[in-house]
Amino acid sequence: MSRSGWHDHAWHLVHAGPQAPALHMALDDVMLDDVSAGRRPPTLRIWEWAASAVVMGRFQSLRNEVDMQAAQRHGIEVVRRISGGGAMFIEPGNTITYSIVAPETLVDGMTFEQAYAFMDQWVIEALATLGIKAWYQPLNDITSSVGKIAGAAQARRGGAMLHHVTMAYDIDAVRMLEVLRVGREKLSDKGTTSAQKRVDPLRRQTGLPRDVVIERMIEIFRSRHGGLVSDRLRADELARAQALARDRFGTPEWTALLP
């Protein structure tokens, strides 16, 4: 297997309307299979969230990460993704999430650290054009001098790679600390002001609307990586993802896979 470049692939863009958290988990799974099988070209998918959520990493313990009583009290869904990494706190208007699904040849021969940095270079460039000096922080964060901006995770299967990133556009730090146990432990002695410093939202740094940030990200991806064809979810992809959300990603058994 020899390494391919961004320009060796015909990239497609999918930016659908708001979808349920479990369906997002399922769409990543289905699209990874489809890129692997050659049924879908390499794709950048921008997510829109229909509900607040905690997205746990594949190998995390539910009880260690999430205060389920607090999550239920706030109406926050808890889901588990197929990639590793840490828990992400999601609020629809406050979060920018994207997936890149690509042939694994794009990162052939790279260490995981190199692959993470490589896959997020375009975002760091996009942020720079908005006046944010950001950089890759091993293993899987994008950060700035005033705090973390984003966290990434990856999964690989069948010769294809899924790389997805959640960015903080804005944040309700108080609510986040009620729901995420790990954040609470890290920050309980410092108060919620430290939470807001640890995760520094794009809204405060740019003063720009969320959709403007997303537009700039798409623009930079398109200019840097050789085009981006506007696409949509195909009916069969959506049907398979909906079935997978119902039978796997939306079930208590999957969410509590590691209780």
Give your account of this protein's structure.
- The protein is built from twelve helices and eleven strands.
- With 259 residues, the protein is of the alpha/beta class.
- It is globular and about 50 Å long.
- The protein has a single domain, classed as BirA Bifunctional Protein, domain 2, CATH 3.30.930.
- 41% of the residues lie in helices and 23% in strands.
What is the secondary structure topology, with strand pairs?
Elements (H helix, E strand, L loop, with lengths): L11 E4 L5 H17 L5 E5 L5 E4 L5 H4 L2 H6 L3 E4 L7 E3 L4 E9 L8 H8 L1 H9 L4 E4 L3 E4 L2 E11 L2 E9 L4 H7 L1 H7 L4 H7 L3 H5 L3 H16 L3 E3 L3 H15 L2 H4 L4
Helix pairs in contact: 1-11, 5-10, 6-7
SS content category: alpha/beta
| Average pLDDT score | 93
Q: How many extended strands?
A: 11
CATH class: Alpha Beta
Alpha-carbon distance between the termini? 38 Å
Oligomer: single chain
Low-confidence stretches: 187-197
Shape: globular
Helix content bin: 40-55%
Give me some keywords for this one:
259 residues, alpha/beta, BirA Bifunctional Protein, domain 2, 8-stranded mixed sheet, 3-stranded mixed sheet, 11 strands, 23% strand
Provide a brief overview of the structure:
It is built from 12 helices and 11 strands. With 259 residues, the chain is an alpha/beta fold. It has a single domain, classed as Bira Bifunctional Protein, Domain 2 (BirA Bifunctional Protein, domain 2, 2-Layer Sandwich), CATH 3.30.930.
